[in-house]
Design goal:
Blueprint lengths: L1 H16 L8 H45 L6 H16 L4 H5 L5 H23 L4 E10 L5 E10 L5 E11 L5 H14 L7 E6 L3 H4 L5 H11 L7 E4 L1 H34 L9 H13 L1
Parallel strand pairs: 1-4, 4-5
Antiparallel strand pairs: 1-2, 2-3
Length: 298
């Protein structure tokens, strides 16, 4: 019944609106049908072309916003980049000026594009992190210019097909205390957010701060305790970051060199005092002791 109604409606519409085409027969009718098909296709292509140009403009905006964020440039630089592009287009291909003019690079647009890129990265990392057979994390806590503690979390994991990924996960502002318990609670929430099962954690690298490495209430100790309470049988591998160790060594070497330089100055002072006449007061033993104590404090 539905098919009969449809056929009747189409026939009535044809007789009422397009009865003039009944006079065409044979090859003439076929040519007319092909001409009508091409006409409707051309109309559809007009809207399709506009849609494709809009998609290309969005892709260009995303492609330019990515290096702006990667190089930590101001979002307002997008408008400056567009001005440079339009200058180049005027000289190289002025006929394509309208295409490039549709690319939006205002500060608000660049902000939205970077937010979209960040969401895409986060979803991709979640998908990959959920496949980790084993993984380890690295933490670094330091203060920014506003004296707010910032905790950086990195993850390195391997999938069952032996693909290795190493990614920056999150930069977390620690507003308030930065004890081992506070760091543990924040890191635990982040790992759960990115589908990282604590049963698969294998090791942790820290910056060597007391809140990280204290035996009882440090972050590493609390993390190992939590894993064992949830059925894990392996001991967590705890590592002091090599980069931080190198920085500490450099500081110690600098202090030693500074102390050595000061001791050489004292020796030269003693030689000069001995070579001078008896009328000039020499460096007494008490003064030498004071000088050496000062050197040891440097």
């Amino acid at each position: 019944m539905i098919a009969v109604k449809k056929e009747f409606n189409i026939k009535r519409h044809y007789d009422a609106k397009h009865s003039k085409y009944s006079e065409y027969t044979g090859l003439i009718r076929n040519d007319k049908i092909e001409a009508l098909k091409k006409s409707i296709s051309k109309q559809q292509m007009t809207f399709t072309k506009i849609n494709e140009n809009s998609k290309k403009a969005t892709k260009v905006s995303l492609a330019i916003s990515h290096p702006i964020a990667k190089n930590m440039k101001p979002f307002s630089d997008g408008q400056f980049v567009k001005e440079c592009i339009m200058t180049a287009v005027d000289l190289l291909c002025p006929e394509e000026k309208n295409v490039f003019a549709n690319v939006s690079l205002s500060s608000s647009t660049v902000t939205r594009r970077i937010e979209d890129i960040a969401k895409n990265f986060k979803l991709s990392l979640k998908d990959v992190a959920g496949q980790f057979q084993y993984y380890s994390i690295a933490l670094d806590e330091s203060n920014d210019l506003c004296d707010t503690a910032q905790l950086a979390v990195f993850v390195r994991g391997v999938t069952p097909d032996f693909r290795i990924f190493e990614e920056f996960v999150r930069l977390l502002p620690m507003k308030g205390r930065t004890t081992g318990v506070d760091i543990f609670n924040v890191v635990k929430d982040v790992l759960e957010e990115f589908n990282l099962n604590l049963d698969n954690i294998f090791g942790v690298a820290t910056d060597g701060a007391p809140a990280m490495v204290v035996k009882e209430n440090g972050f590493a100790a609390l993390l190992e305790k939590y894993c064992k309470e949830n059925g894990s049988q392996r001991d967590l591998i705890k590592v002091h970051c090599l980069i931080h160790q190198e920085a500490l060594c450099v500081c110690q070497i600098y202090k030693i060199e500074k102390c050595h330089g000061n001791s050489c100055k004292v020796c030269e002072l003693r030689k000069k005092s001995r070579s001078q006449s008896s009328s000039v007061p020499r460096v007494t033993q008490r003064n030498e002791i004071r000088i050496w104590r000062l050197i040891m404090l440097l």
